[in-house]
Write a structure and sequence with these properties.
The structure is a single chain. This protein is α/β, with parallel strands linked by helices. It has two domains: about 325 residues, ANL, N-terminal domain (Rossmann fold, 3-Layer(aba) Sandwich); about 100 residues, ANL, C-terminal domain (GMP Synthetase, Chain A, domain 3), CATH 3.30.300. Helix content is about 30%, strand content about 25%. The protein has 15 helices and 26 strands. It is globular, with a radius of gyration of 23 Å. The relative contact order is 0.09. This is Putative acid--CoA ligase. Belongs to the ATP-dependent AMP-binding enzyme family.
Length: about 500
């Protein structure tokens, strides 16, 4: 029964524990499951094809998610940051969905039917009778998520009940959290990390606190006030938290674990974060929408060992995403599809029960042996640690040499005047592509283009030195901090054509 089975187990074994909100007045696991069962009755009354959730991450999000799971109807959290036209097109892709909307966004879908406000849905769910259990096939889609669309139009990934159940069983122990543990969730509801964190924390028995609108200082205050023991952030959030501390140590005595992922975290930012939170362990979670969240982990012990080691090969593991979680296999292949050995960069393929490996309207993209092509370039070291070299589409080819932007970006970020950066390739008649560093600079610190170039040239070989520097106020990013490189390339290609 997939997600429903997880909820039944939690209701039976953890019913009295607080699941959502503050310890004194929050909802227990039994409260949440009871509301979800009533919510399933509400949903089935509409006979929808899907349940679309338009709202922020908060206590209502998991209750709507679980209600849809009990009803056997796919749950579709959508991006509330989208423009009205794009949002409308996204909703139109579904047959006859029920839309559950947070009140602040109701005007954006005023002409849609059927629509029910989030508060009304939760109230009605608590008052509704529970239907007899619905037999939901394990292979039925539990959640439909849109990919980030950093390289093309977003695709819709069906995460089946069996995928999510496999992910939870492989990554967390039932009731494994102590009663004093609390998790702070700040990732947006339409990201796979929110789905994964919702399920694993609920199944593990960990109280969850939400911060719907991220603010670095509010995050620090909430961690201290609610005695948060673990927190999940995306790299841009962690960078802003460290900036807010401004060299001070964080006063968060209960915080034992900071998990980050969703995009690449530059090594200089990670090192500053580990200094700011000396009593917390760090965990790098690498995953994809298509893999039901995390497929590889670099855990706290790995981080601590790397920092303490004088061996450069061990220290370099801070740049890795760790090793596969239980039940997941990885394989690196060359351009001809042949597996390669440690140290060789190639295309990353993954396999496991948590992998969806399909898209709506396209079907399965798994090969004959069940391997999923991630479109990431990667390599492994002799101990099996996985290093992501970048998206295949990000590679810059300058004078016949393949250049990954990540190593240049890491060097740029060691300069105190560089806050954020993205290195892209633009067309060049002589070199094919030229290296362009797009930089968000600290307004209080002066830095010139030649200083940028000299900084890189002193640390990397000459072919890695940017040919051009472009200054911007901000970089276009997804909600998880992935830079929209194609948008940058298109913007500056147009400017180049006009000049």
């Amino acid at each position: 029964m997939g997600v429903g089975l997880l909820l039944d187990m939690v209701e039976s074994g953890l019913g009295d524990r607080v699941a959502l909100g503050d310890r004194a007045s929050g909802l227990t696991h039994a409260d949440v499951v009871a509301t979800a069962r009533g919510g399933a009755s509400v949903i089935t009354g509409y006979e929808p094809s899907e349940v679309i959730y338009l709202g922020r991450n908060g206590p209502g999000y998991p209750q709507v998610f679980f209600a849809a799971a009990f009803a056997g109807v796919p749950f579709v959290p959508v991006n509330y940051r989208l423009g009205d036209e794009v949002l409308g097109e996204l909703i139109d892709d579904f047959d006859h969905p029920l839309i559950v909307v947070e009140e602040r966004y109701r005007d954006r879908i005023a002409t849609r039917e059927p629509v029910i406000g989030l508060d009304e849905f939760l109230h009605t769910s608590r008052e509704s009778e529970t239907l007899p259990p619905i037999d939901v096939p394990d292979e039925a889609p539990a959640v439909l998520l849109h990919t980030s669309g950093t390289t093309s139009k977003p695709k819709v990934v069906p995460l089946r009940h069996e995928n999510l159940q496999a992910y939870v069983f492989a990554t967390v122990d039932f009731a494994g959290a102590g009663e004093d543990e609390a998790a702070l969730i700040t990732v947006p509801p339409y990201h796979v990390a929110a789905v994964g964190a919702t399920l694993t924390n609920f199944y593990g028995g960990r109280r969850v606190v939400h911060l719907p609108d991220f603010d670095a200082r509010e995050w620090l205050e909430l961690v201290a006030r609610e005695s948060i023991s673990s927190a999940t952030v995306v790299p841009t959030m962690l960078a802003r938290i460290v900036d807010a501390l401004d060299g001070d140590l964080a006063e968060t005595p209960a915080l034992r674990l900071i998990s980050y992922g969703g995009a690449r975290l530059p090594l200089p930012v990670l090192e500053r974060a580990m200094q700011a939170f000396p009593d917390a362990g760090f965990c790098n979670a690498y995953g994809l929408t298509e893999t039901s969240s995390t497929l590889a982990l670099l855990g706290p012990d790995d981080h601590a060992q790397a920092v303490a080691s004088d061996d450069p090969l061990i220290r370099r593991r801070l740049e890795s995403v760790g090793r596969p979680v239980p039940g997941m296999e990885i394989e690196i292949r060359d351009a001809d599809g042949r597996p390669v050995g440690p140290g060789d960069v190639g295309s990353l393929f993954v396999r496991g029960a948590q992998v969806s490996g399909s898209y709506l309207g396209k079907g399965s993209v798994l090969d004959a042996q069940g391997w999923f092509p991630t479109n990431d370039q990667a390599w492994v070291d002799d101990e099996g640690y996985l290093f992501i070299a970048g998206r295949a589409d990000d590679t810059i080819i300058r004078g016949g040499e393949n250049i990954g932007p990540a190593e240049i970006e890491d060097v740029l970020l060691t300069h105190p005047a560089v806050r954020e950066t993205a290195v892209i390739g633009l067309p060049d008649e002589e070199w094919g592509q030229r290296l362009v560093a797009v930089i968000v600079a600290d307004p209080q610190a002066g830095i010139s283009e030649e200083e940028v170039r000299s900084h890189v040239r002193a640390r990397l070989r000459g072919s890695r030195t940017p040919d051009e520097v472009i200054w911007v106020d901000e970089l276009p990013q997804t909600a998880t901090g992935k830079v929209l490189r194609r948008q940058l390339v298109a913007q500056f290609e147009r400017a180049q054509e006009k000049s």
